[in-house]
Specification:
The protein has 227 residues and is mainly alpha-helical. 71% of the residues lie in helices and 0% in strands. 31% of the residues are buried.
Length: 227
């Protein structure tokens, strides 16, 4: 089977369709290989175009994956809020469970969360970084509404929670997917067993401790003491 010859998109609709095809290809390859191992050439080949032609649609490989990271933020936020909105009451531990579960259910998003500050934001235009950051801020504001309602968190506490959850999810995912050779080493040497991690249980425990500490804070403060 031969790949159809690439034809440059002429209309706005055709350009949008081509951009979506490129994003779809990057998304699929990222799921299959891990974001770090997907090159611009790989993405171009998957949509049947030369790398130079792909650069007419996106600045860099990093811009493509930064857009997918923004997409991941929207999807994760929507699912997290969808669960929280259905609860009249929730304990800190229950909220921690939902946050951890909704993140762990999105392996590529976890991968992207680790890659974004290390690589993706560093090889795109300032406008692309600004657009990405504004997406994350909007989603955190939406999440804050539910956490304020259920747990009485302040805005800064929500920011701290989301920052802790997303940064840890990214780091833990990298630890949980070390590749076949390292995984074999970790699993066959008892001294290295701690290096094999499961994302959701560990993330849940850490977030539960974080939220329980916040919940206990005011009541643990002595009368007249400064919080």
């Amino acid at each position: 089977m031969t790949t159809p010859a690439f034809q440059r998109a002429r209309s706005t609709q055709a350009k949008q369709a081509r951009e979506e095809a490129i994003l779809d290809a990057a998304r699929t390859l990222g799921h299959q290989r891990g974001v770090r191992d997907v090159t611009l050439t790989d993405i171009a080949a998957a949509v049947g175009m030369h790398k130079s032609a792909l650069l007419r649609y996106f600045e860099t490989r990093e811009q493509i994956f930064l857009l997918l990271t923004a997409e991941g933020w929207r999807q994760w936020s929507a699912d997290l809020r969808g669960d929280l909105e259905g609860r009249a009451h929730a304990t800190p531990r229950e909220v921690a469970e939902v946050v951890a579960a909704t993140l762990a259910a999105r392996p590529m998003f976890c991968d992207l969360l680790a890659q974004a500050p290390l690589n993706l934001e560093r090889n795109v235009s300032i406008d692309s970084v600004r657009a990405f950051k504004l997406v994350t801020l909007k989603e955190i504001e939406l999440i804050d509404g539910e956490l304020r309602r259920l747990l009485g968190l302040t805005e800064s506490q929500t920011v701290d929670l989301v920052a802790a959850a997303t940064s840890m999810a990214g780091a833990l995912w990298q630890m949980a997917t070390p590749g076949p050779r390292l995984r074999e080493l970790y699993e066959t040497d008892p001294r290295l067993g701690h290096a094999v991690v499961e994302v959701e249980p560990r993330l849940r425990r850490v977030l539960a401790a974080f939220l329980t500490g916040i919940d206990a804070g005011p009541s643990a403060t002595a009368p007249g003491a400064t919080p």
